[in-house]
Amino acid sequence: MTYLSGPLPRIIAHRGLAIEAPENTLLAFLRALNAGATHLETDVHASADGVAVISHDPDLTRVAGRSVRVDQLTIAELRRIQLGDGQTFCSLTEALDAFPQARFNIDIKDTASAAPAAAAILKASATDRVLITSFDEKRRRAAVDALPGVASSASVSRFLPAIAAAKAGSVSAVRRALRGLVAVQVPERQSGVRLVSRRTVRILHAAGVEVHVWTVNDPADMTRLLDLGVDGLVTDRCDALKALVDARI
């Protein structure tokens, strides 16, 4: 599985490197890879004509100042919308084709995007270099079931019992909760509850899964989490994380 190949830690660029490029665009992905990202984190929604479009938000308000949803526009219409720096919306197919060696962490944001996302991955012969994730288990399964052998991380309904089992120290219960998954991708804390600690990382590792923490931008937090043994960090500053990792070697 190419997605999990290479040395640790995973430097997972959150929507690319969007310091001087619009997020989730080909330029942001290029800059992230040039800055040392090992993986590209991104999101997909379905366009009006059933294409998996790279976009975090369901609508264009924040990124383009337009009160319209992604699923109300065709891919051709989305490509005409300027996001800055000469960038427009792109399809998942375009991103996979533009970076044929890159490893992608793909969040399925709506039910309608699961099938076209899987089709794009199959078309690009990219099953071994992507990871499928979603907060929603039905969305995650809809994509994963169409991609035999693909890597996947836990949805909310899978990682919450796994974290509880890890806190209780039960490796077997964690293994049962995460059967078929290769990673948990979680914030360090959620609603005031610590999810990531040295103990939970140790138990999750014993159950055979990697631990990736999001979204970590402060170098002190990066250092502390790496010292806990986490396997990867999802970050808006892959450049800073790469420099930190290099300094630790």
Report on this model:
- By secondary structure, the protein is an alpha/beta fold.
- 37% of the residues lie in helices and 18% in strands.
- It is built from eleven helices and eleven strands.
- Strands 1, 2, 3, 4, 5, 6, 7, 10 and 11 form a nine-stranded mixed β-sheet that branches. A two-stranded antiparallel ribbon has the order 8-9.
- β5 (130-133), α6 (137-144) and β6 form a beta-alpha-beta unit.
- It is globular, with a radius of gyration of 18 Å.
CATH topology of the largest domain: TIM Barrel
Please, how many domains?
A: 2
**CATH level-two architecture of the largest domain:** Alpha-Beta Barrel
Shape: globular
Task: Supply database-style keywords.
single chain, about 250 residues, alpha/beta, TIM Barrel, 9-stranded mixed sheet, globular
Outline the secondary-structure elements.
Blueprint: E1 10-14, H1 26-34, E2 39-46, E3 52-54, H2 61-64, H3 75-79, H4 92-98, E4 104-108, H5 114-123, E5 130-133, H6 137-144, E6 151-152, H7 156-168, H8 171-177, E7 183-187, E8 189-190, E9 193-194, H9 198-206, E10 210-214, H10 219-228, E11 232-235, H11 238-248
Helix pairs in contact: 5-6, 7-8, 7-9
